[in-house]
Amino acid sequence: MEFTPLNQFYNARVFLDRDANVIEYYFDISNGNGAEDNIPYYNDLYLDVIYSPNEANSIKIEDENELLEALNTDSITTEEYNLACNTCTMLIEEIKENKNIFINMDKKGLIKKYFM
């Protein structure tokens, strides 16, 4: 399942097994999200957060080197770099405090409602 919230600076993807049990959450940090002709999009800012609740609540940050390289090659601005870092920190805090809306969402209920 994938969620692109218009009011956040990340895209949320959840990977489920056949029984709709969570395997992993993958968050792409973005420079803004939107929708065009009802098709969601997000502007990727390289940095990713991966949360694996079944692996001792493992939280990993991915592609920090790509973010830094994008800054050093002027592919992104200092403001975008700071936005990515701040969003990453906020997201990790939400995960640790069990306050992230997508992690707390009833995924099985959504699947039953829309796909069964």
Give structural attributes:
single chain, 116 residues, alpha+beta, FomD barrel-like fold, 5-stranded antiparallel sheet, 4 helices, 35% helix
User: What's the CATH class, please?
Assistant: Mainly Beta
Q: For the CA atoms, what is the radius of gyration?
A: 15 Å
CATH fold topology: FomD barrel-like fold
Number of strands: 5
Q: Can I get a quick summary?
A:
This protein is of the alpha+beta class and 116 residues long.
Task: Give a description of the structure.
The protein has 116 residues and is α+β, with helices and mostly antiparallel strands. It has four helices and five strands, in the order βββββαααα. It has a five-stranded antiparallel beta sheet. Strand 1 and strand 2 form a beta hairpin. The longest helix has 19 residues, at 78-96. The chain is globular and about 45 Å long. The mean pLDDT is 94.
Write the layout of secondary structure elements.
Layout lengths: L1 E2 L6 E7 L5 E15 L2 E14 L5 E5 L1 H9 L5 H19 L4 H4 L2 H9 L1
